Automatic annotation (TrEMBL):
Signal peptide (residue range): none
The protein's Enzyme Commission number: 3.1.21.-
CDD domains recorded: RMtype1_S_Sma198ORF994P-TRD2-CR2_like
InterPro entries: Restrct_endonuc_typeI_TRD, Restrct_endonuc_typeI_TRD_sf, Type-I_RS_S_subunit
Family according to the record: Belongs to the type-I restriction system S methylase family.
Location of the Type I restriction modification DNA specificity domain: 96-200, 227-391
A Gene Ontology biological process term: DNA restriction-modification system
Keywords carried by this UniProt record: Coiled coil, DNA-binding, Endonuclease, Hydrolase, Nuclease, Restriction system
Record's protein name: Restriction endonuclease subunit S
Positions in coiled-coil regions: 373-400
Keyword Coiled coil: yes
Length: 415
């Protein structure tokens, strides 16, 4: 990054107006940018339709600016309203009852023709604005606050956004060519993110196929032909059922040892305790497999340190290949759900764990299978880290481009 750009960013972040910039209602922006009310670039358009007599697709908005979703209405008679409204591609849609929670999105091609109620006003941009530029602008935290400010009242559905106030909101308005260029750059990042997400989905499906075949014996790795055994889990693993300490012994000051109580203490396949305890009941050790035994049942993680385990989990310590057993337990999460449904409290017992019949190859084959599946995990993990980096880059770009800190028409982005 050029020194002058870096200096400009630092100035704006300190609320100092750099040369060529001005202070406005929406912050410091380039002199060439206007600040206008939305009514000058947006018109509310109502495409009224009678409520269908047969099932239809309706559109909803996710909170926190997470886009649109669709629901099929089987029984139109269950909908009180007799009049609905049709959505078109590139409409800007707001949910007036959850605008305060940032329920806003630009409609895409898949949203075309879906129906909404009067609580979802649709707005169309005129030829002075690029819809895709404002698609990114309205999902910024600053805009969420603006929506919240025009949604008076109590909580939830009692906070209704004023549609007239919405069109009076102020927004930045760069020259149209610059709007289009900024939208093009951010769209490129979106496409990269979309492709990476698709690749991760494919890699996860590939791993699922490997698990379904290698861990059941349907497919064997080259060089392994021995007959597979079926054994009870308790015969090949030590199983420790957790016992909760007295809650008076809990603390957040890291006094005593970590406490693993359930799924909330596990993240991305490893333990991540929230509390510590000075009363030690049952213990797990680094490398043990943690299996949740109370709802949600069957979630699996690896203990990364010695810890006390509460009644919501068990510690499973394989006598041979730990990595194989971890992958095997991952593959049967759904099976535990079926077992737990017979329990009043949606839980599984120590005996049910120990009596579980599992496929148990030779130690050598276990090691080979575990290596194949662990390699797949590492590949997925790498792609997920790359995805997070792409999202961070996009977030940084949005902050720079949508505020004018970096100008695209001077080729500063590529610098």
């Amino acid at each position: 990054m050029k020194p002058e750009i870096k200096k400009r960013i630092e100035q704006i972040q300190k609320d100092v107006v750099p040369t060529g910039y001005k202070k406005t209602k929406v912050g410091i922006v380039p002199n060439e940018w206007d600040v206008i009310q939305l009514k000058y670039i947006l018109d509310q358009i109502e495409r009224k339709v009678a409520k269908p007599e047969v099932g239809y697709w309706r559109l909803g908005l996710r909170s926190h600016a997470k886009g649109t979703f669709h629901e099929f209405v089987d029984d139109p008679d269950s909908i009180a309203m007799e009049e609905l409204f049709s959505v078109a591609e590139n409409d800007l849609i707001v949910n007036i009852t959850f605008a305060w929670e940032h329920a806003i999105a630009l409609a895409n091609q898949e949203d075309e023709g879906k129906l909404v109620s009067h609580r979802f006003p649709t707005y169309v941009f005129n030829d002075k604005a690029c819809p895709f530029f404002y698609k990114y602008y309205v999902i910024q935290p600053r805009f969420k606050k603006m929506l919240s400010d025009i949604s008076p009242g109590g909580a939830g559905r009692n906070r209704v956004m004023s549609k007239s106030s919405f069109q009076r909101l102020f927004a930045i308005h760069p020259p149209l060519p610059e709007q289009k260029k900024i939208a093009e750059i951010l769209s490129t990042w979106d496409k990269s993110i979309e492709l990476k997400e698709k690749l991760i989905g494919e890699k996860k499906q590939q791993k699922k196929w490997l698990m379904q075949n290698l861990l059941t014996g349907k497919k064997r790795l080259p060089g392994f032909t021995d007959e597979l055994q079926k054994v009870k889990l308790g015969d090949v693993c030590n199983v420790v059922i957790g016992q909760s300490p007295d809650s008076k012994a809990y603390n957040k000051d890291r006094v005593g040892i970590p406490l693993i109580q359930g799924n909330a203490d596990c993240q991305k396949g490893v333990t991540k305790p929230r509390l510590w305890t000075t009363q030690i009941t049952k213990t797990c050790y680094a490398g043990d497999i943690i299996l949740t035994i109370r709802a949600p049942v069957g979630a699996v993680a690896i203990a990364n340190q010695k810890a006390c385990i509460g009644r919501g989990v068990s510690a499973i310590r394989p006598k041979h290949c730990q990595r194989y057993m971890y992958q095997y337990l991952l593959s049967i999460e759904d099976k535990w759900l079926k077992v737990s449904q017979g329990s009043t409290f949606d839980a599984i017992s120590g005996n049910e764990i120990k009596k579980l019949k599992i496929i148990y190859p030779s130690t050598e084959e276990q090691t080979a299978i575990a290596e194949v599946l662990s390699t797949a995990d590492r590949e997925i993990d790498l792609h997920e880290k790359q995805l997070e980096e792409l999202k961070k880059q996009k977030k940084a770009l949005m902050q720079l481009l949508l505020t004018g800190m970096v100008r695209v028409n001077t080729q500063e982005v590529s610098s």
